[in-house]
Specification:
The chain is an alpha/beta fold and about 400 residues long. It contains 14 helices and 17 strands. The chain has two domains: about 140 residues, Aspartate Aminotransferase, domain 1, CATH 3.90.1150.10; about 250 residues, 3-Layer(aba) Sandwich (Aspartate Aminotransferase, domain 2), CATH 3.40.640. Bound molecules: pyridoxal-5'-phosphate. Pyridoxal-5'-phosphate binds next to α4.
Length: about 400
Amino acid sequence: MLDIQKIRADFPILTQKVNGKPLVYFDNGATSQKPQIVIDAEVRYYQEINANIHRGVHTLSQLATDAYEASRGKVKEHINAKFAHEVLFTSGTTHGINLVTNGFASILKPGDEIIVSSLEHHSNIVPWQMLCEKTGATLKVIPMNEDGELILEAFDALLSENTKVVTVNHISNALGIINPIKYIIEKAHAVGAAVLIDGAQAVPHLKPNVQDLDCDFYAFSGHKMCGPTGTGILYGKEAWLNKLPPYQGGGEMIKEVTFEKTTYADLPHKFEAGTPNIAGGIVLGTAIDYLNNIGFENIQQYENELLEYATKQLLEIEGLKIYGTGKNKASVVSFNIDGIHPYDVGSIIDKLGIAVRTGHHCAQPIMNFFCIPGTIRASFSFYNTKEEIDSMVEAVKKAKTMLS
Ligand SMILES: *Cc1c(COP(=O)(O)O)cnc(C)c1O
């Protein structure tokens, strides 16, 4: 059992008033709030350690390097990677995915096929489309059903010896559906394809085990899991990271530079050109510690309660429809009210202090599938409460009365 009031006290922003009303923050799918311990760690880095990493012999530089590498080690443990050098610091999920698609530009040929799913965030569609344009490869899409679940028989039928990459998100940001990635990874490997998992929405709710999943790449952002913005991780299997060319050239990623020829640094530095977000990388480790102290089992159990409660309360509103009715779901409710634009509901309930996301959630193909302009998305975190859900439901009822 979690002591939610004690947990809420860790998040200074939650005591704020917005538009004169207590803040109800249900936009966790876009970014999570930060506990004081994370905010303090960021400040402490700049007050006590700030120096560039991997460069100086001086004490501060060594302290900064040690803290940065210790954080890499923490992430390695957290996701159960085999080696720390399979853990690359990035600026976020988008950066991680682009690092991989850029690498595959020198590997794919015309006639090769890339499979994405119809549940993807634009971040995991557009870079693959750009890769197809560059290489002449073809993009194939796993379709979904009315419940927002991927149709696995259709996925099986798409696989062939031409399939070179399969990519799918672990949890859909727009609908909250948890995808059967273990099945997808196994099937993709059976035809020799590499698999990238977009874990951006998974890491706030669960602890991915990359060796057990056996995925080739796993990308996520720090800011959705209580960490700072501009931080992220790309996990890649050693063999793949050795095979892919570097993404960016610059300092830090080289062994030797002459004007005739440059040799690249060993992993992970080959993919970490330039001065990174040092403070952010270190503090991401603090955020992971914080989440592990609460415990992902506790988080999941409590968030499931919130999901069930919100689903039940919202469905009592006449004309309200929930999208993403599949069984396996994270704490996200995406909905609309008959005849009312989601943006109008979002604007009215914002005046009542309630922060939800409205729109296509960077997943336009999903909205096209349901023939809607967008949805209202409430995404819950372990620091949210049933009382807050009550406030949202009341606010949505009020908005419905005003707009119909
Ligand atoms: C947020 C999100 C992204 C993009 O993450 P950034 O932090 O903006 O790079 C990609 N995929 C999914 C599923 C997301 O939810």
